[in-house]
Fold this protein.
Amino acid sequence: MTVFALQAVQSRRIGLVLCLCAGLLTQAGCVTNGSGVGTGSHAAMMTDGGQAIDTGWPFWPRRMRVHPLSQFVTDRATGKLLIEARIEFSDGDGHTCKAFGQIVIALHDADRSQFTAQEIAKWPEDLTDLDLNEVYFDDVTGTYLFRLEIQDITLPPESELRVIFHSADGMRLRAEYVIP
């Protein structure tokens, strides 16, 4: 075959791949009906009362954990103490997934003999903001990384992170983790 014939074959293959991709996107239903949350025809839908109803999307987070990589660190630029909280979500099949909803991370005293219901600090984040969701998500670990500033806080000898996640589909998840 000549160089021109090879280029023509390659151009046809690229065109075929693009057509297939366009067809798959159309079949996947990559549009919402205006009241949907997220994308796809199986996303959670919000009712007029603001309540979420599940329309069958199988990949909503069903479990959450504070990943063991969560730790205290010192910011190199400022020298301030931070908590690097890594939060991992998984779907009903146990596969790591992204999340869409509201998350609140709170710091508590982990010493049960000194335990009080009062929080030492709290950091709410809105993972329905797609730009923020993208900023916090770490592709390498499959977790959300929150670098939480500790300002004017006296840390207890044992610190515990407590996380509550309110998913847009109505699910509420909780996790706790004592930071080493």
In short: The CA atoms of residues 115 and 174 lie 18 Å apart.
